[in-house]
Amino acid sequence: AAQAADAAKRLASGQDPNFIAKSLGVAPPLVLADAPKSRIVDPKVADTAFSLNAGQSSGAIQGALGWAVVKVTNITPGHAVTLNDVRARIEDESKKAAAADKAYDLSKKYDEAHSGGANLVDAAKKVGAPMIQLPPITKDGRTPQGQPLQLPPKLLQQAFLLTKGGETEGVEEAAPGEYYAIRVEQVNPSAPFTLDEVRGPVTQRIMQQDVIKRVQAKANELAEKIRKGGALDAVAASAGAKVETIPALARADRQAVQALGQEFVGAIFAAKKGDVTTGPTRTGLAVIHIDNIAPGATDVVSRLTVAQKAAIGASLNQDVAAATRLAARSQIKPKVDLKRARQAVGGDPSTVGGSTLDPAKSAPSSAAKSAKPAA
């Protein structure tokens, strides 16, 4: 609060915002050019900003996410959107809607032809729907070579309920405007791979693991030299490598994650200032030295916090629910009557060897075990 009041006073006197932030040791000021009110994450800060005139600055604002001070340098009046402004977006949405309507019409025509007695192939040809021949796939959607296919989980579930020559009764919606029907041409029973089938992939995997182990050992050796005071350039040169500097890296920088790899970025943000660590790159391993760590931009951190709020809340709720169940079970000490439970669901109670089970115990009692299969 004291820093915010000081910043507000100095800002009103005409001092440079960047100089004020640096002297107070806070994050550089966030500059929003022609931003709407919805662009400002904190509602209190947004209300204050849009109540000021051009050239005015605010006092200290105690927002929902912290203290802030705002200065308005310019105001661009809002304006009504013209047809030319949104023409491209309207055309794109219209094309998508037309394609979705056409796909829906095809699905209805296919249903009519299929319900009339035509098989999937004939019905698809009749209405002009495209057919895709998939390679043999496992229940988790992989080819025999282990390559994953991007298929809807529901499609896989339905396919593995069908027998050879079986077809789904109608079409299913995979996504808005996307429909599919399934025909199973062949069913290959589950069986262990033969040695010849796995020899190549296993050999390649073992060789890869050996290379990774050797590279990791070398990277650890180089990292240890740097920790003991070795110069980064000299240690890199001894391994025939070169030093590359990343001037700034933000956790939420998607382009950096795509370029450097999620694991590499994760290794960086798991380290502290001055740490020497290693991380995988697209082509090998890197020895990483963390020169400095700076706080993230306020608006970025705020948006990430808001985005993760629901997930964090759900996780906390699950933890509380689990703890509540355990506490209730330890106090009430419930007993389950297995015979009556089996009878309640229409099963044969005689298949249960015992009568009660204590859920608080990690394993059922010997009386609850039965040599007969469950009904």
Identify the strand order in the major beta sheet. Answer: 1-2
Rounded mean pLDDT score: 84
SSE arrangement, N to C: HHHEEHHHEEHHHHEEHEHE
End-to-end span in angstroms?
A: 68 Å
Number of helices: 12
Structural class: mainly alpha
User: Strand count, sense and closure of the main sheet?
Assistant: 2 strands, antiparallel
Shape: extended
Task: Flag low-confidence runs.
Answer: 362-375
Helical fraction = 40-55%
Strand content: 5-15%
Number of strands: 8
Radius of gyration from CA coordinates: 32 Å
Describe this structure in words.
This protein is mainly alpha-helical. The protein has twelve helices and eight strands. The strands form four sheets. It has a two-stranded antiparallel ribbon. A two-stranded antiparallel sheet has the order 3-4. Helix 1 runs antiparallel to helix 2 (about 15-25), helix 4 packs across helix 5 (about 120-125) and helix 9 packs across helix 10 (about 260-270). The chain is extended, with a radius of gyration of 32 Å. About 10% of the residues are buried.
Would you kindly provide a brief summary of this structure?
This protein is mostly helical and about 375 residues long. The chain is about 45% helix and about 5% strand. A hairpin with a 4-residue loop joins strand 1 and strand 2 (about 65-70).
SSE layout and pairing:
Blueprint: H1 2-12, H2 17-24, H3 43-49, E1 61-62, E2 67-68, H4 83-115, H5 120-127, H6 153-159, E3 172-175, E4 178-180, H7 195-227, H8 232-238, H9 254-260, H10 262-269, E5 276-280, E6 285-289, H11 298-332, E7 336-337, H12 338-344, E8 356-357
Antiparallel strand pairs: 1-2, 3-4, 5-6, 7-8
